[in-house]
Amino acid sequence: MATRRKADFYCLGLESTADFFSVGILSFNGEVLANEISMFMPETGGIHPREAARHHAEVAGKVLAEALRKAGIRPHEIKMIAFSQGSGLGPCLRTGATAARALASYLQVQLVGVNHCVAHIEIGKLITGAKDPLTLYISGGNTIVAAFEAGCCRVFGETLDIAVGNCLDVFAREAGLRQKIDAPFGALIEKLAARSQNFVFLPYTVKGMDLSFSGLLTAAIELLHGGKYRLEDLCYSLQEVAFSMLTEVTERALAHTEKLELLLTGGVAANKRLQFMLETIAKEHNARFCVVPKRYALDNGVMIAGTGILAYQHGISTPIEKSFIKLKWRLDEVYAPWVGG
Amino acid sequence: MLLKKGAEASLFLEEWQGRRVIMKRRLPKAYRLSTLDETIRGQRTVHEPQIIHRAKEAGVPTPTIYLVNIANANIIMEFIEGEQVKQVLNDLSQANRKSLCLHIGALIGRLHSHGIVHGDLTTSNMILTSHGKVFFVDFGLSERSNELEARGVDLHLMKRALQSTHYWYAKECFEVVMAGYSEVVGKDVAEDVLNKIREIERRGRYVSER
Hints:
The complex is a heterodimer. Chain A is an alpha/beta fold. Helices cover 42% and strands 20% of the residues of chain A. Chain A has 2 domains: 10-121 and 297-333, Nucleotidyltransferase, domain 5, CATH 3.30.420.40; 132-294, Nucleotidyltransferase, domain 5 (2-Layer Sandwich). Chain A contains 10 helices and 12 strands. In chain A, the strands form 3 sheets. Chain A has a 5-stranded mixed β-sheet with strand order 3-2-1-4-5, with helices on both faces. In chain A, strands 8-7-6-11-12 form a 5-stranded mixed β-sheet, with helices on both faces. Chain A is globular and about 60 Å long. Chain B is of the alpha+beta class. Chain B folds into 2 domains: 2-78, Phosphorylase Kinase, domain 1 (2-Layer Sandwich), CATH 3.30.200; 83-203, Transferase(Phosphotransferase) domain 1 (Transferase(Phosphotransferase), domain 1, Orthogonal Bundle). In chain B, the strands form 3 sheets. In chain B, strands 1-2-3-5-4 form a 5-stranded antiparallel β-sheet, with helices on one face. In chain B, strands 6-8-9 form a 3-stranded antiparallel β-sheet. In chain B, helix 3 crosses helix 5, helix 4 packs across helix 6 (187-203) and helix 5 (170-185) packs across helix 6. Chain B is globular, with a radius of gyration of 17 Å. The two termini of chain B are 27 Å apart. In chain B, 39% of the residues are buried. Classes of the chains: A alpha/beta, B alpha+beta. The interface between A and B is medium-sized, with 32 and 23 residues.
């Protein structure tokens, strides 16, 4: 940070799509100055959008101040504000968008609305050095196999119902597990799974390059409540089936697109067993395997800032009167002129 | 001789019992647990010839299955000599193109009215022989279903395959495919399926190449 030139431009990115509120500060030449994250963690149950939004509103000031402090810059040094405009949970997105509008008008700088999914891919490229990867983006809300082709992002495969992270989370909750900041449900399941080698068959649903996890979840929960199997065995089997499905569709997309890089990102990307499976197929197809490190694979403000900068440099900005959130803003509807093709 | 390597199976052209045959091999996947892998490959190896056989009963030309080896997940089947519809469609005269599409639509109609959805209706999975017969191949993703949703998805895939590979004639071709389809399944069903396709398009889920 000491080598930073004073002449740098900075972008502040706000992320508030779901249970994370995060502020990232990135310089225009790609240096990360701050990446502050506050996670909403309910005592019981899943993410209630209104409760999560209340959390975001409560912590926004503190997270913002801390990010600026860590970055060592003053607010007026910020050149532009980027925010996640969609897709996501309405109340959460609205909270972030409100903060972004307020900041942009107060500082009198440009505002740029960013697509959350594109941001995950772009930060992955920036951090791992991948140029033109096939991306598997898996989290609590998304399960997508995508790549940039001919100047726009194309979704080759995706879940037809719930996301894989959602499937794992709901199962963990049903099993009475309790997550903590440093031990989310996915990590708890991975740990339990490592203690078993007793495979129990569960429904395996792949439709071409699309997937479905709802039947798998229902079956796993039924076996859990049936009491016949140990929790370790069910965690193990759930992981094996869900990850094999993911790997199969990823391989199909890799064979189809002939991309030479495979990028893994999102909250579920941290799982070692899944990383191993994907690495196996990447090797078979002569593709470089890139895993985005956890702090950039989870929802974060830096990815929003990074994508905001790309958009800004290509003449895209979002006037305040057009900065409505887009709840269902699909990855393949994003105008991304910074991608060649 | 390896003809084609897909993500799930490889196709080999081989000599078997004095015939030229296609050997479809579903090779083990190192990333999957072997118990799971064997089950999946086994199920698909059993499922595909069954559907191919049912398609034949429905009056849709498909390769004859000679041997199914469940243990090795191999299928030996008739080698259909001809050209992929994908390769010839663009070069046909308008009249010939129309009659081919009408015929393809009728074949899809026969599959659907016998409770089969193909699951991968692209012009590369249809082979035109020198006698003018059209064979449907690759039933690896097919399923038994009478649901409108499944039929809609099936034909929507056909539409997209036409749009991506046969850009200039896509609209005309698809209309004729649907006309041929309608002749077999009847106007009412065809209308329902068309509406379903519009609904699927509106969902915006299948906007890109897959």
